[in-house]
């Protein structure tokens, strides 16, 4: 355990030195501020920029519009950003050969991978929940009368999907000793999830629903009972990706 905590500390230190932690926190904090601001003032901006003589009817913004922006930025930009930042989590280690000395001195390979996963998970956790709490605070400020049901389910679902992507990205980082391979591998995984939805009877098992139907969760069109199969699949895929990464890493050269 001591080696695990030491290597995890090393990962977090590197995230600080290469500014990945600063970049992730800054951008996710910016998202958190922009989500409610966009919902609040976008109708006024659209009205001001419309040509004279053209009138559009826009409903009064609500707190749901703020959370719509949160999930839009979280899935389209936030997850993409995290995957980009973490795509080279193993590439530099392979390039510099820093893992050779550690392994020859007795550091278990699974410890290296679990420490890598923990560091990446902490980066995602801090960034994501910072964005959430900032959005939550500003949403309460701008829309004090709004009520949001099932918010915890919607937010946690997207967070869990992010954990799944990190596990898949780590597996890709073990399979390919560069920064591009893991990106392509994760993209291929997402493509499989999208194709999965072509089969209606199997779509309820698709973990993609955790990141694509969050607004349905807020509007109670999708409840926890409806997500049990998708959550189970996400858990199994996460564990399977981690176990596969450990097994492959034990056999691969450094």
From TrEMBL:
One of its GO terms (molecular function) is ABC-type transporter activity. Keywords: Membrane, Transmembrane, Transmembrane helix. Pfam families: ABC2_membrane_2. The chain crosses the membrane at residues 21-42, 74-91, 112-139, 151-176, 183-199, 230-249. GO terms for cellular component: plasma membrane. It comes from the Bacteria. PANTHER family: INTEGRAL MEMBRANE PROTEIN-RELATED, MEMBRANE PROTEIN. This is ABC-2 type transport system permease protein.
